[in-house]
UniProtKB/TrEMBL annotation:
Keywords linked to the UniProt accession: DNA damage, DNA repair, Glycosidase, Hydrolase, Lyase, Multifunctional enzyme, Nucleus
MF terms in GO: 8-oxo-7,8-dihydroguanine DNA N-glycosylase activity; class I DNA-(apurinic or apyrimidinic site) endonuclease activity; damaged DNA binding
GO biological process, one term: base-excision repair, AP site formation
Keyword presence, Hydrolase: yes
Record's compositionally biased regions (Polar residues): 243-257
Major subcellular site: nucleus
Protein name, per record: DNA-(apurinic or apyrimidinic site) lyase
PANTHER family (alphabetical): 8-OXOGUANINE DNA GLYCOSYLASE, N-GLYCOSYLASE_DNA LYASE
CDD domains: ENDO3c
Keyword Membrane applies: no
Region of interest (Disordered), residue spans: 67-89, 236-257
Amino acid sequence: MGAHKLSDWRKLPLSLTELCIDTTLRCGQSFRWRKISDEWHCVLRGRLISLKQDASHLHYRVTWPKPTGSPVTSSDSIPAAGDGDVDTEQDDTESLLRNYFALSHSLSTLYQQWAASDANFARRAPAFTGIRILNQDAWEALVAFICSSNNNIGRISQMVQKLCIHYGPYIGTIEGEAFHDFPEPQALSGTHVEAHLRELGFGYRAAYIAQTAEIISYLKGADWLLRLRNPESPAFAAPITRPGQNETQSSSSSDETPITYRTAHEALLTLPGVGPKVADCVCLMGLGWGEAVPVDTHVWQIAQRDYHFSTKTKTKTFTKVMYNSVGDHFRSIWGPQAGWAQSVLFTSNLKAFAGQASGAGTKSGIVEEAIVKAEKMVRRSKQAHSLAEDYGMGVVKTDEEEVTTTFVRSRKRRITAVTKVSGSDKKHVGAVEVEVHTRRTSKRLKAAAS
């Protein structure tokens, strides 16, 4: 690597249950990590970090930038990586990694707490241990998740990579692949940025990125995002004051209202291209608000499928009220680190991890499938019965020892609900099937577990 400074491999004692980088670094949190020859690489805070992991340790190595000018890839306006005058003996990379992976939290303890309060989490989590929420730079998280709108992880990663190549400082090369740091707001706020990003395939997101960069650079100030952080989850280092920023912009007022998750979320919504989901992604992964629960199509599917979540409204539009109610529902189950728990189930719902999630051919997979089917059948019967009682229509009761049947008729549907069944009366065959299915499932579970 020429004149680059390269540290020796160092290690942190860390089990795979506390951190699994192969899952955490590719589950849609950060989009710049690249895996080359069984090692993960990314530029953080002006240095190129390489990671690898075994059962008991996280190993890391640092490549520092060249001491003089560095190559660029798109235009002369790209800033140099730095003078490289770094004393590696006083390397703070270990502190950076501890902060980045939020290692102050005991993940094993959190998993135990979530499993104790949520049977669904307890069933799915064993296949997805070691997923931590990354404590990322807020500016990077903001831009990356603006790119995530109507997008998938692969395309988001490509867009973020293009931003780094064309606007970020070059740091180093590994096996022929160049690595750049993430661009500062001013680098993305030029007059031709939007047009260039459209040429690069960003579409309508190009305007959002350019406008947001302008606002952060010249209107709100460099540390506006820093002031939105959870005070209990500090950033690794304070941002550098940028040219054109005055003292009023860079310092917080003593009479400011104390920041909360809700106020941080609402503040982010004022930026172009930031809706509730993007704001929650930034709150969770860039500002340290563990209770933030980003709700996208995956999480909405999980809420409906696994937690029987439903709304009283018949509208197909996903309103802000509906969005907030899903987040509140999960916060009531998982507590102050609900966003961390959500990330585990989110990951289990991704196609990239389908094999890991299915437990194909295993007893646990068979048991889970049986449980879900049984719960669904019983739930439908109970919901129908509840509807019948609400309508107060056509209630027919016989002896308690035999059957209680309720019929509901309306213009759109006819519902039959049964609470108790005995015998083989053909009029109640549907209910008999529910009961028999439940008993057979119970036998199947016992057989599978034995």
